[in-house]
Each structure stands twice: as C-alpha cells, then as structure tokens.
Amino acid sequence: MTDFVVITGMSGAGRSTAAGVLEDRGWFVIDNLPTSLMGKVAELATAPGSTISQVALAIGPGAMFEEPSRLLEPLRAGEGSLRVVFLDATTDALVQRYEGTKRRHPIGGDTLATSIERERTMADGLRAQADLVIDTSDLSVHDLRARIEELVETGTPDGLNLSLTSFGYKHGLPRDADIVLDVRFLPNPHWVEELRPRTGRDPEVRDHAFDHPSAGPFLDQVTSLLELLLPEYEREGKAYLSIAFGCTGGHHRSVAVVEEVAARLRDAGSAVTVSHRDIAT
C-alpha cells in the first residue's frame, strides 16, 4: 500500500521547502513532475514487488490548473491514501519573497502583484481540491518545516485532523481557516498593566479573560457544536479541519480560548493540534 502526498500551491509559497522535509523523512520525492506522468508514477509505485511506500509529488500549480480532479484520479485509484497540500500566502508576502530573490514569476503580468493575483484566480479550483491549506505568509522556514513534519507524523489520516489556531485581527485573518470565531467580546487583559506582557497561557490572564457572564456558556456551546460537527465532517470525508479564534492582538483572549477548547475536546477523545499565530508578535 502506497501513500501519496501532492504538494502544490502558489509560486513562492514554500513548495521546495515542504518537499525537502518529506525527502529528509525518507519519502520518495519527485519535484516538478509533468502531470502527464502522474499516472505512470502511481502505476510503478503500486506495482507488485514495489518497495516504495511513501511518494511525494511537488507540482507547480500551473501544471494542474485544468481538471485537477482528473489529474489526481490515478493517485486516488489505488489502495493507499492521497493527501493534497496547497501552500498559500498573501500577495504582499509573495511580492516580498520574489523581490528578495529577484526571480521572475512564472505567470506573466504587467507587475509582480498582477502576476500573483492572476495565478491565484487560476488556482482556485486546485485549492478547492486540497485536503489541507497552509498559509505560509507569517511562517518562517522553521515553522513551515514543523507544519509539514506534523503532517507526516499524523500518517495516513484514519479520522479528522483538527487544528485550533489563535490569531489577532489586527494582523489579518488566517487564510487557511475553515471556521473563524471572534472572541473580542471577552474582557481584554491588555488593559491590565500587570497582565499585558503575559499571554493567554497564563492562569491569571485566563481568569481575567473568562471573567464575563457569557464566557462559560460560550465555551460550553462552542465545545458542544464541535463535538456535533466533527463526526459529520468526518463522514463527509474531510481529512483536515482548521478553526481559528481571534482577538485584537492574538496574545491573550484568543490564546486562552484555544487552550481551553482544545483541553475540553481532548478530554472528549479528539486529537487536536494547537498553534498560536500571533503570540510572539
């Protein structure tokens, strides 16, 4: 049985870095594979006597703009698994990366930003096919490596992989979130001088943020809602679900809520990954 991972996404979003992580982990990695050969790779990897059990294909989005479902079908047809990872980033982040490397963008346009937006529009169908979307805008190379290693460590997804993320609205919405919840109605520890330098992981910050008549019911109902929805998403075949909780800066309230909801879901038997996007900003 062979597991396949297709790594694709916006040009400049980190495809080569992600492929390198899988190669370091012992995966058989093919970069820039022509889409016409995807079926042949699947055939060889799954042939009787093949010793290849993990294959990663790093493919530029331009090669898969047309009919992504048809192109992925040979990889889905076998007894193994297929995960499609789409790496995304904001236009500003991609412009900055391209200007830093002085490389030309593969999609022609009057300006670099125009080229990126044109590629983004063309990639919409492919993005919709992805099992997991990772926004690399604010990720360092180390952070991206950690996210890909996390993907590898989960192995073949037997169930839904749930990710809870805190963020600050002043830094922008997470592009890879499936569901976003606003927790700015909770008391803001930022306005308490001794709490300002701390984070939502601190018990005193948590107690302050949750000192609101709606805090308890909110946490109860969010947990109940997720316990209801997770099996439904899993029945629909969804492999990854990303839920983001936002406050103003991403240091206090959203962090406290994510930690609390994650603890409740883990107690109920769910596997949960936690990240705090803006806690260090």
UniProtKB/TrEMBL annotation:
GO terms for molecular function: ATP binding; GTP binding. Keywords: ATP-binding, GTP-binding, Nucleotide-binding. ATP binds at G9, M10, S11, G12, A13, G14, R15, S16. Gene3D superfamilies: P-loop containing nucleotide triphosphate hydrolases. InterPro entries: P-loop_NTPase (IPR027417), RapZ-like (IPR005337), RapZ-like_N (IPR053930), RapZ_C (IPR053931). The keyword Nucleus does not apply. Residues 161-279 form the RapZ C-terminal domain. Residues 3-153 form the RapZ-like N-terminal domain. It comes from the Bacteria. It holds the Pfam family RapZ-like_N. The keyword Nucleus does not apply. PANTHER family: RNASE ADAPTER PROTEIN RAPZ. NCBIfam families: PRK05416.1. This is RNase adapter RapZ.
